[in-house]
Design goal:
Layout: H1 2-18, H2 26-39, H3 46-50, H4 61-73, H5 77-82, H6 84-92, H7 98-112
Helix pairs in contact: 1-2, 2-4, 4-7
């Protein structure tokens, strides 16, 4: 029963993370990302692997900043390697959110070591 509830909550959090601009303000997206990290128990939620075949290029580039730091902490290096070109584009983008990019980059470096 608890697994089913966790699954449904993770689905709702995913919707908050990748939904349209008017769907959730940035603070809610950051909170959602933290909750995904805590509820996932170190495993990448299936919807990041299954949606769009795991290709981050299909997500709104402005939303990736909210979930990439969390994904970089979870244990699916294959998914991150599959998206290396998308990740590089995101890291070199001329946008703010330096803290989120720094966190994600630190986690990714640790992952490949």
């Amino acid at each position: 029963k608890i697994c089913e509830v966790t699954h449904r909550v993770l689905q709702e959090l995913f919707a908050l993370l990748v939904g349209g601009d008017g769907f959730a303000p940035p603070r809610i997206r950051l909170l959602s990302a933290a909750l995904v990290r805590e509820l996932s128990a170190g495993e990448t939620p299936y919807f990041f692997r299954d949606n769009f075949g795991g290709n981050f290029a299909h997500y709104d580039a402005h939303k990736v900043k909210y979930f990439l730091p969390v994904l970089s902490e979870l244990s699916n290096s294959k998914l991150l390697i599959q998206n290396i070109s998308n990740l590089v584009k995101w890291f070199v983008a001329d946008e703010g959110h330096l803290g989120l990019r720094t966190t994600a980059l630190s986690n990714l470096i640790a992952l490949v070591q």
